[in-house]
Amino acid sequence: MIALEILNYRNRGMHTDSVWTNLNGKWDGKGMNDLSTATYRDKHYETYKLALFKICARVLGKTLPSGVDGKIAAAQASVGLGVGGIRTTYDRNGNFTLDQIGNCETTSLVVLAYLKPVSDF
Question: Sorting pLDDT into bands at 50, 70 and 90, what band is 39?
Fold first, then answer.
């Protein structure tokens, strides 16, 4: 929700510094550690949140913390697991399970995060 708030503020010409600081503070070196991550039954990270984080960084001209792009790259399923989809979740140690295949929603957000022109957001 914070990422969407950032995009909304930016598109309305409002200041985004405080909400960017809030979103940036969710990165714990492995994933976006927010309330849902801490309380969800499996307590896992969600890859789509990294994609939204990247979108916001691009739109605001901010630098992503070290490791975010690498974690997104690690989310890509290998050839034997579905040929390239982006896996949706990973554990609190930062590991993706090998039996997971990517889904359309997460893969779409990652593609947008890297390829959509900033002016389109």
Answer: confident
